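Slide 14.
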Amino acid sequence: MKTKLLSWSLLLTIFLLHGCAKNPVTGKRDFMLMSESQEKALGAQSDPQIIATMGLYEDPTLQKFIKEKGQQMAAVSHRKDLKYEFKIVDSPVVNAFAVPGGYVYFTRGIMAHFNNEAEFAGVLGHEIGHITARHSAKQYSNAMLGQIGLIAGSVLSPTFAQYAELAGQGMQLLFLKFGRDAESQSDKLGVEYSTKIGYDAEEMAGFFSTLDRLSADAGQEIPTFLSTHPDPADREKKVARLANEWDRKTDKDLSVNRDSYLRMIDGIIYGEDPKQGFVENNMFFHPVMKFQFPIPAQWQVQNTPQQVQIVEPQGQAFMLLTLAEGNDLEAAAESLLQKYQLSPAQSGRETVNGLNAIAIIADQNAQQGQQQQASVRTLIYLIQYGGNIYAMIGASAKQNFDTYARTFQNTMRSFNELTDQEKITRQPELVRIKTIDNATTLQSALTRFQMPQDRHEEIAVLNGMRLNDRLEAGTLIKVIERGTPLTVKR
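Slide 15: predicted structure.
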């Protein structure tokens, strides 16, 4: 025992002696197990995973905009030497995130919620700040240190990451939340960087009000850069104070650029894009691939270009649907069992609504050192349809499998062809920009533009306004309409 303790102590000492690096922002020595070259390599490795998972948003004008502003801001940052990349991903979630090595991603969801270029620039600076201050690299180092001598006791969470194909190191970093100090430092850098390229950073403070209102809506996910701050109002005040200090330091005329930004996002997709699949009345519909299946009540759905993930409210079980590999059902079954290291307990041929299928119950045993009762049991249906083989996988801890088996089976046996033309031809909702003809309130304007009453508050948040705000003639506002997205901007 003494020898083991000495070994771990020596290993920890080596880490502490050799794991320190100078922080590019503060100039102080930070504990860091990831070198700059490893940081760059991790970003390069993670980027294709992120794009494959989320997809790029097909809008050349917006992609050009984020690249130009990003490179302009990178040039005034504390790490000008990095090869930065800036991309808008095709997700409705209101979020922005960065991974080590200079990779920054904004969702189309957050692009739709900005109301001027200055708000965008503040958040862009915040994300670049995470990179320049090496926050992700530090999180990685802390996570590695925490794993010394640690044997994970949970099977379901790492198994879910495996099935969800998020097990790469770079993807895992997306789920490491930054601490309050790191977020505060990135707020400061966001103010500094956006001011240096000529934007009024006080608009960044105002955007926190929009984020606060979104997080209060049960239907919205809390953005990662908001979730570690329990008091967004206090954060807004601090950022506003910093913005005023930087305003006094600069001799530039700082810009907001509201109207130009709104015209640029006119036609951006808002919310889920139906062609990628959508949920309605506890049913998942895929108009392009023309299939449907039910979603258990209260289970949470995450739809990506690669797969549909469905998670039980307490996280005790999950299902996913994805395309299987193989030219026939038997080959697909063998490939899937090998991929996830599953041992089949029973299997057999079935038909699902007239479609050829194989049903399999299979186990994934716990890794060596983990408790046996933590093993995972899965129910798998491989269904042949439309020239593809679909894999529907349900999984839970083995001791809980009987609790969820019927739910798994009911969902999988209900997979069926989609024939409803209204669902097949469903168009996405778009943000459209309208001009106010006469002075009025936002609520009156939304009524005039025939926006549904029950969505007035949602659209007010989208505009960063209150319903009783007075609008002058000529003011541009956002409304929501269904239509065909513009793939090339005017």
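Speaker note: The chain has a mean pLDDT of 83.
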